[in-house]
UniProtKB/TrEMBL annotation:
<feature type="domain" description="Alanine dehydrogenase/pyridine nucleotide transhydrogenase NAD(H)-binding">
    <location>
        <begin position="118"/>
        <end position="234"/>
    </location>
</feature>
<dbReference type="GO" id="GO:0005737">
    <property type="term" value="C:cytoplasm"/>
</dbReference>
<dbReference type="GO" id="GO:0004753">
    <property type="term" value="F:saccharopine dehydrogenase activity"/>
</dbReference>
<keyword id="KW-0457">Lysine biosynthesis</keyword>
<keyword id="KW-0028">Amino-acid biosynthesis</keyword>
<dbReference type="InterPro" id="IPR007698">
    <property type="entry name" value="AlaDH/PNT_NAD(H)-bd"/>
</dbReference>
<protein>
    <submittedName>
        <fullName>Saccharopine dehydrogenase (NAD+ L-lysine forming)</fullName>
    </submittedName>
</protein>
<keyword id="KW-0560">Oxidoreductase</keyword>
<dbReference type="InterPro" id="IPR036291">
    <property type="entry name" value="NAD(P)-bd_dom_sf"/>
</dbReference>
<dbReference type="InterPro" id="IPR051168">
    <property type="entry name" value="AASS"/>
</dbReference>
<dbReference type="GO" id="GO:0019878">
    <property type="term" value="P:lysine biosynthetic process via aminoadipic acid"/>
</dbReference>
Length: 293
């Protein structure tokens, strides 16, 4: 499946709480793998998930993840500002604040707008907003931290967690409820205890207003606990908000592999891509396995 170029905003109403599902990472399943490029001599499957989470010596050959974190953090601040000013309405679509385009012309334009959003949130809160980034040392996490800093969030207001902060303790984590924005930038290959649960959401004094994660977010968010608004951002193609920068970064990462295309039978990345292609084709119904593309 090739996703649409623009984020889709869905609204779910709960008992007293409105959930804004805006979305972040792709579900790692059949629905996300797709043909990535067609070459004159051959067709190779370069699945987005395999590029983000490959098994070949833990090496990523190319990636969008940095801009996924960057754009996710930007929408997190924008959602927070909107929620603080008008908790009764949903965040408008990306088109409404990009002159109808659905994307930003460049990173500078996005950062400039998000700085204004952060200032609006600060005015309502009476303090600078805070954020907690889980997986802060990875590409996605670093992209998120980069946006928060460029938007004007003080360094000390950004809590950076990675393996060292979580390896010896399971969730839920009380720290997540203390931040205004929580962004999860780690990939989960197996179920784990939730980062946030109903008990944490029900506690008085909760600051958490925006959760940014993928559709498989390990967060128990089911119904209203204390009538405080909470938004969940869950989009699988956030880099499309910055098409130029995201494409340039992805292309730069892909260049090394393209230069080895002439040796595709022996090149590790192409051999692995072809193997993955045949594995995925084998999961298709029989009548689709030989369909022309």
């Amino acid at each position: 499946m090739i996703t649409s170029p623009l984020p889709i905003v869905t609204r779910i109403k709960g008992a007293g709480r409105r959930f804004l599902v805006v979305g972040l990472e792709a579900v790692q399943s059949y629905t996300t793998w797709s043909f990535f490029m067609t070459l004159k001599a051959a067709v190779f499957l370069l699945h987005e998930a395999s590029l983000r989470f490959p098994t070949i010596e833990a090496k990523q050959y190319t990636y969008f993840s940095g801009y996924a974190g960057f754009a996710g953090a930007a929408l997190g601040i924008k959602t927070l500002a909107h929620q603080l000013q008008d908790s009764s309405s949903k965040l408008p679509s990306v088109e409404t604040f990009t002159d109808g385009r659905g994307y930003y012309l460049n990173e500078e334009a996005l950062v400039s707008q998000i700085r204004e959003d952060l200032a609006k949130a600060e005015k309502v809160l009476g303090r600078k907003p805070t954020a907690l980034v889980l997986g802060a040392l990875g590409r996605c996490g670093k992209g998120a931290v980069d946006l928060f800093l460029k938007a004007g969030m003080p360094d000390e207001n950004i809590t950076r967690w990675d393996l060292n902060e979580t390896k010896d303790r399971d969730g839920p984590y009380e720290e997540t409820a203390k931040a205004d924005v929580f962004l999860n930038a780690i990939y989960l290959s197996k179920p784990i205890p939730p980062f946030i649960n109903q008990e944490l959401l029900a506690k008085k004094g909760r600051n958490l207003a925006v959760v940014i994660d993928d559709p498989t977010v390990p967060v128990e968010i089911k119904d209203d606990q204390n009538n405080l608004p909470l938004s969940v951002i869950s989009i699988d193609h956030l880099p499309s908000m910055l098409p130029r920068e995201a494409s340039e970064a992805f292309s730069e990462g892909l260049k090394e592999s393209l230069l080895t295309l002439k040796d595709r039978k022996t090149s590790r990345v192409w051999a692995d891509a072809e193997k993955l292609f045949h594995e995925k084709v084998a999961t298709l119904p029989e009548e689709l396995r030989t369909k022309s593309v």
